[in-house]
């Protein structure tokens, strides 16, 4: 079987579609390939393991002969790259250390803290300068194995993603201004650290300051406004810079202090006026029927129980011990497998616009349970069935309360405190 017999572009497109449907690991397992290290097929802003795609596409074009196995042909410039480019596809070749024998473009070497013009960056990253204004804040450049991240701490001209510093880390919001963000394309690249992440911040018209190279240390779902003001799901990334970036980057900030106060503008203090008459309470025109109220409360109780049952299974699977409940008080508490410190968990279901009420209740309950039923060194954790807003998570964290979110299949640490307190609670329930 010869790789030159792969002549159908449609067969390659069909293999790409199957790759997307199955996911990378399942696709590679099905066809018996290891993950690619250097040669990738670049298509519609995504990267695909080129040798596996060629092997699968061969079987699609020649079903009687079957797909090519990993040992049927070699990868590289003269085989896979040449065949795919002959069919009109674009290849991405990961740069290697040292000399560049195969002609792939080397990664740019930038100076941390220096301000670069779009013209300079266009030459370094092999794109038109205007691309930095039109492509958004996350720009993938597969030909130099780079993901460019642009942040505007304090808000950009057209939209505020609420990026901010926590110590030397940058909390960075994913791509997408309208509707729920998705874990795909550039967001997925960053979560997996698929490329080298070059981080810049706005520094004037057509200029960007290089903050350094960073690794995504953690990502989680949160909530925030989109460009229309509607609340939507967003992805938060914790970016940690290399030593050089940390040495020359912006000064660290207090990890529990808010970085901006603009959102508090609607709450303005005023002198107390004892002559002011409170506004009368107005009952809604259409009060909820008793049957609907009971049904809603019953559903909330069932959701609460399912959340606790899932948490119990996940803790047990992760090696936690003495997992107990206290009827009428503590939802669950358990001892960590590493140092046996106890964590008190309070579960809250988030529905509609009840986040503020539920998180306030959880904070007071956790403090009360630790005071009356626990020990002074017990740790506190709120468990929810939906992401809380980033501002709310930061507030709870400042009070020593971690936030753990359950998406119906797995638990996710929201913020660094939950990751430190609960650890890798990744077992799917």
TrEMBL record:
Residues 158-248 form the ScoMcrA-like SRA domain. Pfam families: ScoMcrA_N (PF26345), SRA_ScoMcrA (PF26348). Residues 8-91 form the ScoMcrA-like N-terminal head domain. This is Restriction endonuclease.
